[in-house]
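Hello forum,

I keep getting stuck at the same step: I have a sequence, I want structure tokens, and every attempt I make locally crashes halfway through. Rather than fight my setup again tonight, could one of you with a working pipeline run this one for me? It's a single chain of 71 residues.
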Amino acid sequence: VAVGSRLGQFTTHFDDRHLRPETRLVQLDVVTRDIGRYYPLAARIPADPRATCRALLEALGRAGAPPPIDA
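Reply #2:
Ran it on my machine without issues. Output:
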């Protein structure tokens, strides 16, 4: 899961040793033009990263998942 990242050169260095071509990626970003720009994705989430992560944590809590370590 890539949150708020373009997955561009400064993040990945376009180096397959760090991000293998067969890796199933989910990219969450508010800048929709960058979603899926450099790597094929299993899922695209065009949304505000902070609000989306908070909503996911709340949903996980309701589902019985343990709270995050820094909560």
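The mean pLDDT is 88. If your local run keeps crashing, start a new thread with the error log.
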